[in-house]
Amino acid sequence: MIDIRLVRDDTEAIKAALGRRGIDPADIDRLVALDAQARSSIGARDEVRARIKAISKEVGAARRDGDTARAEALSEESRDAGERERELDVTATDIQDQVRSILLVLPNLPSADAPDGAGPEDNVVARSWPEVAPVYGDHQRVPHWEVGAALGLLDMERGAKLSGSMFPLYRGMGARLVRALESFALDRHADAYEEIRPPTLVLTETMVSTGHLPKFEEDAYHLERDDLWAIPTAEVPLTSMWRGDILDEADLPLRLTAGTSCYRREAGSAGRDTRGLLRVHEFEKVELFAYSTPDQAAAEHEAMVARAEDLLQALGLQYRVLDLCAGDIGLSAARTFDLEVYSPGVDMWLEVSSVSWCSDYQARRANIRYRPEEGKGPVFVHTLNGSALAWARIWAALVETGRQDDGSVVLPDVLAPYLGGRTVVDAPG
RNA sequence: GGAAGGGUGGCAGAGCGGACUAAUGCGCACGCCUCGAAAGCGUGUGAGGUGAAAGCCUCCGGGGGUUCGAAUCCCCCCCCUUCCGCCA
Fold first, then answer.
1. Least packed by Cβ within 10 Å: which of A31, A298, A391, A409?
2. Which pLDDT score is estimated for A291?
3. CATH homologous superfamily of domain A120-425?
4. Å from the A379 CA to the B44 C1'
5. CB under 7 Å from strand B
6. Residue A369's closest CA among A380, A384, A353, A360?
């Protein structure tokens, strides 16, 4: 959530900032009006409450003095006030809920540094790696689902048999590659990030804290019987680890990493990129996550992007970094860099990481604060998250990039320790 | 799943219908003392909302109820501990 006080006190600036994301200024005016209404109704209710408390004290005093008649009269007055209080409370609560439900779907304020633009076409390519684009041979122009099927690494048909389409099933070296990638990434960040293995089914509140609910309910798997949600990213449980808590400044930045399965219904993208591993309902991902002070956030964000890039460089995959424009940044983020890997078999740039600085947007939802060493009360932390790569698409890019003339696949040397020393997947026959 | 006991401020822990404005201890901050420190003594120490301020209101796991008045009584739910059952 953004700070309602900012909306109240600096309405025009908020309209301008959210206007960059396509929010209608009239919506903000409506919110401001509703907020004013909420505050006045809270005031009216609290006045009556104060009256009731005062009367109750007098009743107690009258009882002690044995003045039953006076106690009765006061009780009667308080009963009437109680009725009014209930009515006023219903009104106040209702209006407050309306304000909150608007705030919950209102996106974060974009960073001033984020480029202008309305959609994906306006994103800016910040840099590419390697500087000189590689040249790919014909043997690399084979899509990973064909390579995977031929070498017995990937069996999409059997995955669909078990769970429906877009649920991959890896086999043999293909399965081991997924495991290797996860270990590789977690080990790579062990120097600065605490490894977490969180639950992957979470409460509604946990999903609301990151911004995945209520707005994107259609994208999430929900287990109705137990009212639990399957996480779309480890960012969800990691954000809520300190939900409702107040951290010490000395604890920050607090860095966490987790490898989990991620579940996405992909409701809005039916029919698009459905081949192979381009878009799947379940995939593995290693996430980097940090809570920081506002001052630390920019450096933390940069460092996180560098770490994601480091993984791609270590794997030898061609990629580019996109600075997302205001119109394309996700709900909770103020600024986001996407990493896209080039996959020669499908001849596409595949998004494999999204590194976001969410300022205090999620922290306000989740009520996560810290006590500054200098100064007054607790303030909201900033949250940052980034994929230390999503392995389904990396898997695809590795298999396509590594395909040799003879049909075999050569995997990066850095993975050798995780693959039992063997980085070659032989062609059949 | 069954039984019992619990969930109170940063922590420990008392309170079990009206002075709760939540005791007390620890911790923390400041002061006194000291060459300096420890000890000791003193003072102060939760969060949120609203308001120019004084103040007012909310929060004792969550929700609902009883009452003039609820941390305290009743109902439902969640979580923790122990025991039993079941289970990878």
1. A298
2. 93
3. Bira Bifunctional Protein; Domain 2 (3.30.930.10)
4. 22
5. A 4-5, 39, 42-43, 46-47, 49-50, 52-57, 59-60, 63, 74-75, 78-79, 82, 246, 369, 377-378
6. A380
